[in-house]
Amino acid sequence: MLNPDSLFQIGNPIAFLGWLLLLVAPRWRGTRAMVLSGALPLLLAATYVILIGYQTFAHPAPGAGFGSLAQVAALFREPWALLAGWVHYLCFDLAVGAWEARDAHRRGMPHLVLIPCLVATFMLGPLGLLLYCGLRQRWQPAPAAAPLA
């Protein structure tokens, strides 16, 4: 039976696979097809839409909303909404990581320099984005770099 816990156990490895590919095989055809093309982040986005719709209509959280911190806390007491929120993070962080990888390649940034940014984006989202945006200022786009995706 599909419940928030079982779906959590499915979603995490899928996102982790995307991160693993970005870290260890950024130029592999499979990485380009699954992650850098946006396919895996879009799969997570579609999953989010389904989850948030299901939560909204089948499992509404009493007192939930976005107008106050208390309303957001009430929303995330509902397991389906919490799962949707988690998938939201998985989706956006992976999309940002894919952008970082594509942009770094276009700029000619060495992959070893990118790895700490990707790890930080995977673990702490905005911190990794800030780190990458700080580092990318040192590399101007390479004129003839072939795109990763």
Describe this structure in words.
This protein is mostly helical. It is elongated, with a radius of gyration of 17 Å. Helix 1 (4-24) crosses helix 2 and helix 5 (79-107) runs antiparallel to helix 6. The protein has one domain (4-136). Helix content is 74%, strand content 0%. The chain has 7 helices and no strands. The chain has helices at residues 4-24, 29-36, 39-58, 69-76, 79-107, 111-124, 126-136. The model has no long low-confidence stretch (mean pLDDT 93).
**How many distinct helices?**
7
Q: Give the quaternary arrangement of the chains.
A: single chain
Give the helix proportion (percent range).
over 70%
What structural class is derived from the secondary structure elements?
A: mainly alpha
Instruction: Enumerate the spans where pLDDT stays under 50 for 5 or more consecutive residues.
Output: none
Cα-atom Rg, whole angstroms? 17 Å
How many strand units?
Answer: 0
> How many domain units?
1
Question: Per DSSP, what share of the residues sits in E-state strands of 2 or more residues?
Answer: under 5%
- How do the SSEs run, as a string of H and E? HHHHHHH
Distance between the termini: 37 Å
* Overall average residue pLDDT: 93
Morphology: elongated
